Amino acid sequence: xxxxxxxxxxxxPRDGLQIEPSWVExxxxxxxxxxxxxxxxxxxxxxxxxxxxxxxxxxxxEAVFQGIARRAGVTYVALxxxxxxxxxxxxxxxxxxxxxxxxxxxxxxxxxxxxxEQSLASFAEVVQLAKGQAVSLNGTVATTFGCxxxxxxxxxxxxxxxxxxxxxxxxxxxxxDTTGMANPRQVARIVRQVLExxxxxxxxxxxxxxxxxxxxxxxxxxxxxxxxxxxxxGGLGGCPFAPGAxxxxxxxxxxxxxxxxxxxxxIDLQRLIELxxxxxxxxxxxxxxxxxxxxxxxDLHPPPATAG
Amino acid sequence: xxxxxxxxxxxxPRDGLQIEPSWVExxxxxxxxxxxxxxxxxxxxxxxxxxxxxxxxxxxxEAVFQGIARRAGVTYVALxxxxxxxxxxxxxxxxxxxxxxxxxxxxxxxxxxxxxEQSLASFAEVVQLAKGQAVSLNGTVATTFGCxxxxxxxxxxxxxxxxxxxxxxxxxxxxxDTTGMANPRQVARIVRQVLExxxxxxxxxxxxxxxxxxxxxxxxxxxxxxxxxxxxxGGLGGCPFAPGAxxxxxxxxxxxxxxxxxxxxxIDLQRLIELxxxxxxxxxxxxxxxxxxxxxxxDLHPPPATAG
Lengths: 308, 308
Description:
homodimer, TIM Barrel, eight-stranded parallel barrel, Aldolase_TIM (chains A, B)
């Protein structure tokens, strides 16, 4: 991997859509994933296999995974909370299972109805299930950078969770800023320490732009050595505690940043912008991303007639 | 100045309001400026003295400057395009005149109906007028980081304009990313070079968040040594070429960033958020800032009842 290359994992089909207020048809989800996979992405989080009661918007995970046009070289990831979700995801053909627990015990209980220990025990069952199958396992540490209930999270505890994931046999780790509380100095510090435990190729950073710091945190993580980032087309997603605030960092804003600073993503920015511009019609509302509104820097405008 | 201190110049009353579609009453402008000056700001761009035809929203500059409750220690800045504007601003009692030209000749002709040379010649008249008066002069180089008509701007030309401003006797320089085209690596490079010409105390950076990079650019400039930044409450402002995109970087988002990374601004964040939350009612629309929606990191939420 060149030192000036960054991998974007598209998560709009999962983290982007899950909070949408209106149902998105299975065919539209499939079209979105296929649209993304045509643009140069190597990784797409295509759905989740959680309880349909907890996340009704993603209850059609099986149909989505079975309906997409699989593209060679693209890893299709499924988020799973437990053994049952893992069984469903494997049956549906997911290439990778993304297991999630929160570093905050309070947040984990609120989201998963389990302590962190109970989550890890349930993940051990998933590891057993996955043995010998053509599937990789990624462990996400949610609320790594702060919890809306507990506030700051002890960094030593985050590193311990990373090591527990590694001991279970996970080949990838995601550090997630679930509700947009990270700041760039904290990100740089934590990324540097985690990269003493795992190589950059195994680490993903997941930022939300809830307080406007998403891309600043990407840059801090990138400068600290991280090379893989989650992002959602249009900046979809959101935070239940911040009505109206931004969601995930926006894919096209991230790809534009990379293009401007000379970091390769392998993604076609103009076609990405065009795909993002289809979202408001699909979802019935504006999206928080900026570059889909502003265009690329290289899209110049004619000067007004008075300029002659 | 401590190395971990940053000065925020509030520009909502000028760059924020000038593009608003509906008239804001003079009394409301005055209340906004007085509200800002109570929160710890040392510098406020309170209005402009340009042609009322060009910017009708700010045609009441005299009444605004004469109506505000001047607070000791606050510098009230007026943007002026030429000698006539400078005469009006001085009569109205501005503490500092901010003169603006665009590094892009095409943009300068479009905005000022003059070449850069003609702008500089007109500024020489302003310098003569200001001699012996208790007013300081700041020179802004608009479109420093890119022009929507010309694209990239030659950096050597930007440095030449800075030197021309200094030769004229300006004591402050602003580098402005007028339409949100800057990127953090470019910003760091240009700031480092300009800081070889002037001290950090004389340099202001003016960023727009048009493509989501505003705060990333602030951080890059800060790390390169810059210490003074323009920002607009609520992220007001905008760009005529990017309908719906963000405007100036958002003051409360910037102050929140500083608070989180331990850089002092002297500004009360919570009261700033409360002031920003009055803007939608004043202006009749939502504002792009994030922190006014999300709150501070330290504003914790009760866990849901299921978390027990």
